[in-house]
Every structure is written in structure tokens, then in C-alpha cells.
């Protein structure tokens, strides 16, 4: 039986991980009482007595937690942005390549991708890897997310009564074009410069749809909609959680962002015309975009079936 400690279990991601692991018979969950959860000595003891440690903390606290790990056997899965671009950490997106998967399996340090970044990278990494576009392509990305991605404070804001009527409308944010997921979006895909990224939060709890448009004339390899769809289908073939979907499966031609809530699935959609291509990735920002991805990485690190306790 493996011992698991979730440092930061009280946050949205930590609670979701706890729920996914709570019913498993192959794991022993180490917990701290409310009065000790911020006590450094108690946290250190829990970290060093665990086989797997999940860090669901702000960046500075996550970096501090890593320094508390004394044992070389302790494996750490960090859900913060602190280590996502570090070459010493595996990037927790096993579907990107066999090299990514193998590094996760063998690593003692894994960084879980950001939710927006997961959608962007699922679309752009295969394009770069296959030489369909060059690393200096001027990428633009739009992403619509439910308010749970903003954490407890935003959840309380949206679910309070009465509330500001402006919350009824989708709201653009990170208007200075410096969102915290941009470094990993740029680095993991090997881009020459960061994309223009426009995130939008809307009045629903969870679910995300990330879109990336392409000009076919600017692609290194000019391909039709059907050719690109086939390329993505082949790229993610035999992957448990990522599938290409057809237009016929959409609800009246609308691509909604909350269809995959409660799952670890990710769906890729390709559409457009001869001049412009639309790529979209939709998933649960709390699932494949956060806690589900973390549990998937843990399963791989422990040599288990990656789908264990995850809903496909």
C-alpha cells in the first residue's frame, strides 16, 4: 500500500484529488488536523513519511514544501506553476510524446500543467512536433473557463446572493497579456515567442474550451481541415483520455465548454475552411486541467493503469 499526502487539501484542486483517491484500497491518505495544516514541522513529517506528495499550494509555498522533502524516495507532484518550466521536473502531460510519458514514469518530480496551458499545448505541440507550423508562428489563443478555476474566492463571489450583475456576463481577464500560464505554453511547445492569450471566465462552475485559429497560408505544411483532423486523430491514437470528435456530435453546431465535467477526458475539434482552420480543445478544468491530470501522473509513477480512479 502506498502512502499519499496532499499538502493543501483544503483548496479546490486538493479537495478534488482527495475525492478521487479517497475510495481507493491501494492507498493510505496521510492527513493533518486543521490546526496543524500550516505548521512546518508537521507538514515536513507528513511529506517525508509519504511515497507520493501532492502540492496544491501557491507557488512560494510549493517551493518551500520541496525543500522539506529529505528522503530521496519521496515523489512530488506539484499542481502550482512553480516548476512547470524547470528542466529538472517532468511535465505532467503524458499524451504529448513517449518521452514525456517515460520522464513522468521515472521522475521523482512532476509538474502538473495549468488548465489553460493544457488546452493550448494539446493543440500546438503536435503542430510543432509534426512540422505543420514553425516555432515562430504568431499564435493567438482564446480560452473560456468556468469560475471554479479561480479558486475559493472566485467561487464564493459567483455563488453569493445577492451578487454583482456583471458576473452574469462572460468576463475577459489578464488584459495585460501576461497570464501565468504563458511561460509553460511557450516553453513546452518550443515557441520562438509567447502567444497572444485571451482567457475568459463565464457563469458556470467547471469546464473549459480552448481555441487556436490558424491561417493555412502561414503553415509550413498547408493542409485541409480533414487532413489536420486525421493528423490529430493519428497523433492521439491509443491514448485513453484524448480523442478527436466530429461535427455531428455537437449540439446544433455549438461547441460548449462544460460537456466533460467530472471526467478526465479531453476532446479535440477541428473545423474551418481552405483559408482558416479552427482548432479547439475542451475538457474539465478540474479534471484533465488539474486534479485528474495529477492523479493520472501518480498512477503512471506508481506503475499502475493510468485510468485508475479516473472517469473516461
UniProtKB/TrEMBL annotation:
Reactions that this protein is recorded to catalyse: N-acetyl-L-glutamate 5-semialdehyde + phosphate + NADP(+) = N-acetyl-L-glutamyl 5-phosphate + NADPH + H(+)
Record-linked Pfam families: Semialdhyde_dh, Semialdhyde_dhC_1
E.C. number(s) listed in UniProt: 1.2.1.38
Annotated coiled-coil segments of the chain: none
Phylogenetic placement of the source organism: Bacteria, Bacillati, Bacillota, Clostridia, Christensenellales
Chain's gene name: argC
Segments forming domain Semialdehyde dehydrogenase NAD-binding: 3-104
Function according to Swiss-Prot or TrEMBL: Catalyzes the NADPH-dependent reduction of N-acetyl-5-glutamyl phosphate to yield N-acetyl-L-glutamate 5-semialdehyde.
The protein, known as: N-acetyl-gamma-glutamyl-phosphate reductase
GO BP annotations listed: L-arginine biosynthetic process
Keywords for this protein: Amino-acid biosynthesis, Arginine biosynthesis, Cytoplasm, NADP, Oxidoreductase
Keyword NADP: yes
Gene Ontology molecular function: N-acetyl-gamma-glutamyl-phosphate reductase activity; NAD binding
Presence of the UniProt keyword Transmembrane helix in the record: no
Enzyme class per UniProt: oxidoreductase
Family of the protein in this entry: Belongs to the NAGSA dehydrogenase family. Type 2 subfamily.
Pathway connected to this protein: Amino-acid biosynthesis; L-arginine biosynthesis; N(2)-acetyl-L-ornithine from L-glutamate: step 3/4
Source organism of the structure: Candidatus Borkfalkia ceftriaxoniphila
Active site: 115
